[in-house]
Please model this.
Amino acid sequence: MEENMNSEDKELLKLFEPLRVADVRDGMDWMGYHHYGTLDYKIRPLYRTKAVGIARTARYLPFEGPDPRVTGDEYTQWSNWYYGNVCIYPWFDEIEEGDFIALDVSGVDVGLMGSENALGAKIKGARGFVTNGGGIRDTDEVIREEIPVWSYFVSQKMDQVRLQFDAKDVPVAIGGVTIRPGDIIVADGDGVIAVPRKIAKDVAKYAHKELFNDKNARREKYEKLGWELDDSVVNHQEVFKG
Model:
């Protein structure tokens, strides 16, 4: 599906995919963004993994009510109406290869994504998810499906009477950072960092220098210890020289 990506997105993903969050953080510092980009440290990965992608954003607000006064089969009918009119997913059909889905759910304890719809997003090319609430449930299956998710917590709850869709493809605030559509998101065991697209290439330049220097220094220590070299100390080309 990468053939459907625009050339700039391809270039940016190629630049950032080798980088760790720590490297990107250093690159942001080198560009004077010392206090920007790093999402709240309490936003943690569902499991240890890494993901890099282009931000696709959506915003949801708390549902104002009233709660339905129906149960059983009538509740099923009401719930179907809710998903078709209130808590909708208009951004989902627009997912493209390389997207990193940034979901502002206003801190609500609700599983906007679960094992079924997250798997559908993965099929469409989504690289990962980050959210400022729970935003994820069915987590045993999500982990088994190897779908990268970063969130404050996990949630048992469905969307109805909890969330309403507000907007897509707009700036969102997650973990104290503004994420705009098209920004670069890098996430791993150290957390999540968002890089404004306007400075992305310069950030990558200095991040690669830091990674190159780090690998060289650690490789020397591996050799002194007599350790077998692994991917963390070899196979990195210095993308930017000078």
